[in-house]
Amino acid sequence: MNDAMKRGICAIVAAFALAGQASAVLPSEQLADPRLEARARAIGAQLRCLVCQNQSIDDSDAQLAGDIRVILRERIVAGDTDQQAIDFVVQRYGHFVLLRPPLEGQTLLLWFGPALVLIGGAIWVARMVTRRGPPVESDAGLTDEEQVLLARRLDTEPAS
Description:
Layout: H1 3-18, H2 34-44, H3 63-77, H4 82-93, H5 108-131, H6 144-156
Helix pairs in contact: 2-3, 3-4
């Protein structure tokens, strides 16, 4: 590998290493007041994109995430506190919109659902394994005459 190629590869690796996660907040969505925009970003980092599900609304470029970002900024401009703005979004979209939903009766399935599925799968696999019983011997239930006939067939037929 020549030096130019090595430098090119190093430049590409460095670019990927230095590139952070891009924010999907559009310039048209940003608030003019930097303090209000900082609040909106802090709140947006706590809210889940309902389409992507593993990204915050600030990191997602899905249309629904953009709609929630706009609603959030409208609430902040209207004078809502951070908690009031979050409560408004939760009231509209449910607890699933929170990246860290509270541990309540309504959210128990969100918190413990994956563990229950994993435990249920382990129980099902254990039951399938234990139901099989001991292995059956190959010559069990054959008469002496059938065993001789089977042995002849196995010896005379070509191996596949």
